[in-house]
Each structure stands twice: as structure tokens, then as C-alpha cells.
């Protein structure tokens, strides 16, 4: 079977052959087209564009609410939606306990990704004021005690965050 054109696959696990060179080629191509997110199975690979590419506004927030992962381009909001739907028991085949791991080098965008995921989860839980209030109350406290200035980043996180409901 012939390989699809570079950059046309949203989930790289669907490729018949995936090695380091193919992975890097796909990511490089997608990044050049401002497609900064790529799935590798349940993992979302994000490459920080270091500029606003306009994919976090209300239009995108609404698009990924209750969206089906396979029908939409990869996005951080899809991960937030999947975790929220599972946590609320709306996806019966999944565990209600959810964990999103965000990792990368200093300056890679972990803190911004965390803020965007929390923003989307808060948007998703409109009407569930208890969960919304828990998230809103704990995040500023964590930020105040957990960030420090480094040579690479003025607001570098010094900890992991674990939010549970």
C-alpha cells in the first residue's frame, strides 16, 4: 500500500511504516503548514510555533465540544474534551479517572498548554459549577507557589499539576 502524501495523516499510527525519519518528516511538514498538533495514537504531539496561529478562540472551542477525534484535525481541545467526557461518564467504555501528561523542554509551551486545557475544560463544564469552581480556585494557588524565573523562561513551572474530581 502506498504511503499517503506527507502531512495528510492526523494519526501517525495509521501509517504502515513509522520510523524516526518518517515521524520527523511528518512533523516538520505539518509545522510548516501551521498544523502544530499530530496524533500518535492517544498521544498528542505539539510543536510550539512561538506565535499566535489563531486556533484557540471560541470557534475552535465550540468545534471540539463533543467532537469525534477521528473527524477533526488534532488539537489540544480534543484531548481536553475526551478527558472531560470520560470523567463525566459520558464515554462508558473509558475509565472516569483521567490524567493528561504534558511534557517537554523548558520553553516548549507546557504551561500554556495546561492553561488552554483548563480553559477548555472550564468551558465544557458550564453548568457543573462545582467542578468549574474547584478548577478555578486551585490553579492560581498552584501557579503562585510553583513558578520561578530561569534563564530560558521568566515564568518556568517547577512542579507537575494533578487535578482530580
Record keyword descriptors for this entry.
single chain, 165 residues, mainly alpha, two-stranded antiparallel sheet, 4 strands, cytoskeleton, P-loop_NTPase, Kinesin_motor_dom_sf, repeat
Q: What does this entry look like structurally?
A:
Keywords: Actin-binding, ATP-binding, Cell projection, Cytoplasm, Cytoskeleton, Motor protein, Myosin, Nucleotide-binding, Repeat. Residues 7-165 form the Myosin motor domain. This is Myosin-IIIa-like. This protein has two domains: 1-53, no CATH class; 54-144, no CATH class. 39% of the residues lie in helices and 7% in strands. It contains five helices and four strands, in the order H-E-E-H-H-H-H-E-E. The strands form two sheets. The protein has a two-stranded antiparallel ribbon. A two-stranded antiparallel sheet has the order 3-4. Helix 3 packs across helix 4. The longest helix has 18 residues, at 129-146. The relative contact order is 0.10.
Count of helix runs: 5
Give the structural class. Answer: mainly alpha
| Poorly predicted parts | none
Strand content: 5-15%
Gap between N and C termini, in Å?
Answer: 45 Å
Number of domains: 2
Order of helices and strands: HEEHHHHEE
* pLDDT averaged over residues: 84
Secondary structure: number of strands: 4
Provide a quick synopsis of the model.
It is found in: Cell projection; Cytoplasm, Cytoskeleton. By secondary structure, this protein is mainly alpha-helical.
Record the SSE blueprint:
Layout: H1 20-32, E1 37-40, E2 43-46, H2 58-63, H3 76-87, H4 110-124, H5 129-146, E3 147-148, E4 156-157
Helix pairs in contact: 3-4
Binding site for ATP: 104-111
Protein name: Myosin-IIIa-like
Domain Myosin motor: 7-165
Amino acid at each position: 500500500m502506498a504511503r499517503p502524501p506527507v502531512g495528510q495523516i492526523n494519526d501517525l499510527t495509521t501509517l504502515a511504516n513509522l520510523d524516526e525519519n518518517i515521524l520527523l518528516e511528518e512533523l516538520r511538514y505539518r509545522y510548516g503548514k501551521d498544523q502544530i498538533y499530530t496524533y500518535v495514537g492517544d498521544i498528542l504531539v505539539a510543536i510550539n510555533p512561538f506565535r499566535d496561529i489563531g486556533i484557540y478562540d471560541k470557534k475552535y472551542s465550540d468545534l471540539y465540544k463533543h467532537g469525534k477525534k477521528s473527524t477533526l484535525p488534532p488539537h489540544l481541545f480534543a484531548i481536553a474534551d475526551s478527558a472531560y467526557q470520560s470523567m463525566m461518564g459520558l464515554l462508558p467504555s473509558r475509565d472516569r479517572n483521567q490524567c493528561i501528561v504534558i511534557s517537554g523542554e523548558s520553553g516548549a509551551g507546557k504551561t500554556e498548554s495546561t492553561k488552554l486545557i483548563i480553559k477548555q475544560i472550564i468551558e465544557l463544564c458550564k453548568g457543573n459549577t462545582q467542578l468549574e469552581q474547584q478548577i478555578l480556585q486551585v490553579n492560581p494557588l498552584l501557579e503562585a507557589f510553583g513558578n520561578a524565573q530561569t534563564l530560558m523562561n521568566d515564568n518556568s513551572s517547577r512542579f507537575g499539576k494533578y487535578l482530580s474530581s
